[in-house]
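Before the break, one more example. Copy the sequence into your notebook; we will annotate it together after we see the structure.
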Amino acid sequence: PDPASPVGTAAVMRSGEAQLIAQVPDSLLEEAAQDAEHLALIRALGIRSAMSVPMVTGGQTLGVMSFVFSESGRLYAEHDLAFSQELAARAATAIENSRLYTDRAEVARTLQASLLPEALPQVAGWRFAADYRPGQRGAEVGGDFYDVFEVQGGQMVLLGDVTGMGVAAAALTALVRHTAKTAATFDPHPAAVLGHVNRALRQRPRIEPVTMVCGLLGEGEITLAIGGHPPPLLRRGDACERVGIPGLLLGAVDDYAEAAARTVALAPGDTLLLFTDGVTDTPGAENRFGEQRLRATISAAPPEPAALLATVSAALDAFAHGTGQDDRAMLAVQRT
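Here is what the structure looks like once it is written out:
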């Protein structure tokens, strides 16, 4: 069809005005046809009556809906046009809502990806693996984060959980990660890093608690400091135990007592699992997943980091019940 024609879908798209052709004349079919063969095919359809209705929402025309009668012999009237306009408006709203949801979801995915490292480093003598799962469907950006990066004396390992979800949580996560990385550049002691993060949080206009575990990997050992976070679990052989000394929540008080650091020797094959409370708080049909189940799952899992995380994730997915799930993050560190 001619896009400049005053009749048809192109005209309706341009003007945003509906068109009703109660009886379609043969001359209109001749104008629409590209050649004699095309005209014969159009005539064979037996089109008797037609409507073209704009799909409008928010003052914008998204498309055109066309309606035709042929074999029935019916003819469209003004009341049919009013009904079709209402139908087209609802369809346009549905399309726009779908587009907005898709755009919002893409923004959330992009923002979430920017808060996590693109890849974990390759470090001689160590093996890393991480897993992040968003919470319930419909949630925006989550507040869990992790990172591994080089500092003086080794590698810094971080894992934490900020308050809330959405853009505000993303901004807080970015602040915590940037502060921790900057602080570790000047002083890589884990307790000192937590202290710097606490001071940055206390400068915020309102209380925004954060939990975090910070570890410095050295020669066959890791020094841990914990700020209100679940202590990591160490898989050694078939045993699994807590390591680290629990400390105060970050961002809660000005007179923050420096977290007590603990150095743990790691033998080849030992695997340390850092995790957020979304793991142990995973709701089941009757209760939470809990640390006891997590320890048992870790003890039965392969020690290799990626395989261990896959086993734990599968156990959590099988246990989970309902939609009220928090996002969860896990970081596994193994000495090779």
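The chain has two domains: 9-109, 115-335. The two ends are 69 Å apart (CA to CA). Try to locate both features in your own notes.
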